[in-house]
Amino acid sequence: MIALGAAGRPRRLHRLRRVSGMLGGYLGLVIVLAIVLALVGLGVLPARRWAAFGDIRVWQFLGQGLLVTLQIGAVALVASLVLSVPLALARINLPMPLRAIAVAWIELVRATPVLALILFTTLFMPRTGLDIAPIWAATLALTIYTSAVVAEIVRAGIVSIPAGEVAAARSLGLSYLQTMRLVVLPQAISRMMPAIVSQSITLVKDTSLASIAAVSELVGFARSSYVFFGNAAETLFLVACIFFVINYTLSRVARRLELRRPPRERVPVPTDLEPVGRPVV
Q1: Are residues 170 and 198 in the same domain?
Q2: Measured between alpha carbons, how far is 16 from 19 in angstroms, rounded to an integer?
Q3: DSSP per-residue codes, 165-227
Q4: 279 in a domain, yes or no?
């Protein structure tokens, strides 16, 4: 019984640390809210400017903007995942002249500010004769940028698979595409998930830049609200809280997924990537 109790104590401590770490960020948000309430009580932040949030229609209005934000983020994430796989495979396995094109594209896009990409797609696409709505132009820009970043994550996930497994699959008669589809990518995707979830945090934050292209997402709806009610600081504070809840939740999911994998199988985010070689295929 003593041995079992001693063995269970580290487990309980680990569970306690995990729960406290998860709740730490939300506790910080509660503290900030308490400070704001104290400032309201002292008259530093006039209570009349918060009165608008007692109307359910204001929350419904902001909720419409939040739905647009989530729509842009979800579409851009799914599309970028689809594009990132061929980009990563091109960077790893194509002959040098073609691989250089893929490398140049990925590095060029990663080095370009997201705001510049949004302005480019918004202003350039109509000149091509394509009648594309601003929301889809902004989504396209976010897709282009995120696909380049995720391509590096996919590349790291692919090269993290032991070369022996790839060689064994090829020796069994599997083609290159079959090896990738049946052996490499299923394992790589599992290893890449924490990094992809982490990148989705950046994507959610970048959706706020779509307002520069006259796209009414959460920040755009918030701007219309505070212009009408004259409470810019209060409205933007609530918007910041909404983004915090979404992104902190995603960060905890990414951390939980990362801790489930052995250290040698963890795929770092693109900013932490070291040069990697080509897998044996």
Answers
A1: yes
A2: 5
A3: HHHHHHHTT--HHHHIIIIIHHHHHHHHHHHHHHHHHHHHHHGGGGGGGT--SHHHHHHHHHH
A4: no
Portion of the chain with pLDDT greater than 70, in percent: 79
pLDDT in tens, 144-182: 999 999 999 998 888 888 888 888 888 888 887 888 888
Asked whether the predicted pLDDT for residue 221 surpasses 90, the reply is yes
Same-domain check for residues 213 and 160 = yes
Rg (CA), the chain: 23
Q: Which amino acid is at 167?
A: A
Which range marks the domain in which residue 267 is found? 56-272
Q: Sign of dihedral through CA atoms 84, 86, 87, 93?
A: positive
* 277 SS3 class: coil
- What integer pLDDT is reported at residue 277 of this predicted model? 45
| CA distance readout (Å), 200 to 76, 80, 151, 155, 277 | 10, 11, 14, 17, 26
Whether pTM > 0.85 for this model: the answer is: no
